[in-house]
Amino acid sequence: MRYPEKRLRRYRKDEKIRELVSNVKINKTDLIQPVFVKEGLDEKEEIPSMEGQYHHTLESLEEEIEECDRLGIPGVLVFGIPEKNDEKGSLAHEEEGIVQRAVRSIKDFSEIEVFTDVCLCHYTSHGHCGIVKEGELLNDESLEVLGKAALSHAEAGADFVAPSAMMDHQVKYIRDVLDEHGHEDVGIMSYSAKFASNYYGPFRDAAESSPDGASTGLRNRDTYQMDYRIGGEGQPMEEIKMDLQEGADIVMVKPALPYLDIINEASHRFDVPMAAYSVSGEYQMLKNSVENDIFSEKVLEESLCSIKRAGADMIITYFAKEMVKDGKI
Ligand code: PBG
Ligand code: ZN
């Protein structure tokens, strides 16, 4: 029996050749660390649903950022959890709000790239991402509040605002507001293809932002976040295209691991920087598995690699710090 001359195992003979041949490597400079800052805390608190992640005070956030800087992580995505909320989320754009203060304090001493999540779900009493009336989430009324929130983040010094409410035309609206106020340099990283995912569970516990069906008549986010039963060629690409036309600088797919097909399709179609958000449920699933010795911790690098291989240029992951600190990448 004659075998072909080519033997692919030559590429795998030892670690040195495997490293030379490999073309997808996770660098720390690919990673963005999400951070939570919570109003009214005396000390930082571990988030029960997201082991190893913290609700920070303004002081402990400073240490967190210093650590990111030391480790060489280039960016953070800041979430604020306010003490008070109301039906219209009007505290989302207060100059003295918790995110705005956090951004100012970070920018005071650090050059880390600051991305801020722009949404209303932490600020509305009912936990929806916009204004609700008679069981409906009102798109254009919500844009006004989102625009003000984005502007307040820009004024505090955010480098990029990251609208995540999945309202139609939120990118254009926010771009216009920023430009009108002289913030042409502030970018938009849009949560473009954001799915109504069950993988957000631990985050909603962390941010106390689960939608309240009883008071609103809207039990979930299915009327604004995307349906996961739609393939990559249709609506998800349409969402990304629209955001680009409206002025998004970076587009995002979220979640990441269960949506690699979407990331891949988008990376072929659009030649723009693309982020993937590996969400709280992905984090907790992997964390638990490693901690319980179900998987080797190498599964973390493998997972990030798969997201990059699919086509993401940057990855928002709760593992960012840990990967670098513990030499896992
Ligand atoms: C708010 C928001 C969510 C996440 C980021 N921004 C949750 C949601 O849509 O309910 C999820 C992040 C995660 O699960 O890690 N719009
Ligand atoms: Zn939201």
Distance between the termini: 43 Å
Bulk shape: globular
CATH fold group: TIM Barrel
Number of helices: 12
Instruction: Please identify the top-level CATH class.
Output: Alpha Beta
Task: Give the class from helix and strand content and strand pairing.
Answer: alpha/beta
Order of helices and strands: HEEEHEHEEEHEHEHHHEHEHHEH
Helix content: 25-40%
**Assigned CATH superfamily:** Aldolase class I
**Poorly predicted residue ranges:** none
For the largest beta-sheet, the strand count, sense and barrel status come to: 8 strands, parallel, barrel
Architecture (CATH level 2) name: Alpha-Beta Barrel
Give the averaged pLDDT, no decimals.
96
- Widest beta sheet: strand line-up: 1-4-5-8-9-10-11-12
Describe the protein in words.
The protein has 329 residues and is of the alpha/beta class. It has one domain: Alpha-Beta Barrel (TIM Barrel). Helix content is 38%, strand content 18%. The protein has twelve helices and twelve strands. It has helices at 15-21, 58-71, 98-109, 139-156, 170-180, 201-207, 213-216, 235-245, 260-269, 280-291, 298-310, 320-325, and strands at residues 31-38, 45-46, 54-56, 75-81, 113-118, 131-133, 136-138, 160-163, 187-194, 250-254, 274-278, 314-317. An eight-stranded parallel beta barrel has the order 1-4-5-8-9-10-11-12, surrounded by eight helices. Helix 3 (98-109) links the parallel strand 4 (75-81) and strand 5 (113-118). Helix 2 (58-71) crosses helix 3 and helix 4 packs across helix 5 (170-180). The model has no long low-confidence stretch (mean pLDDT 96). Zinc ion is lined by residues 119, 121, 129, 164-165.
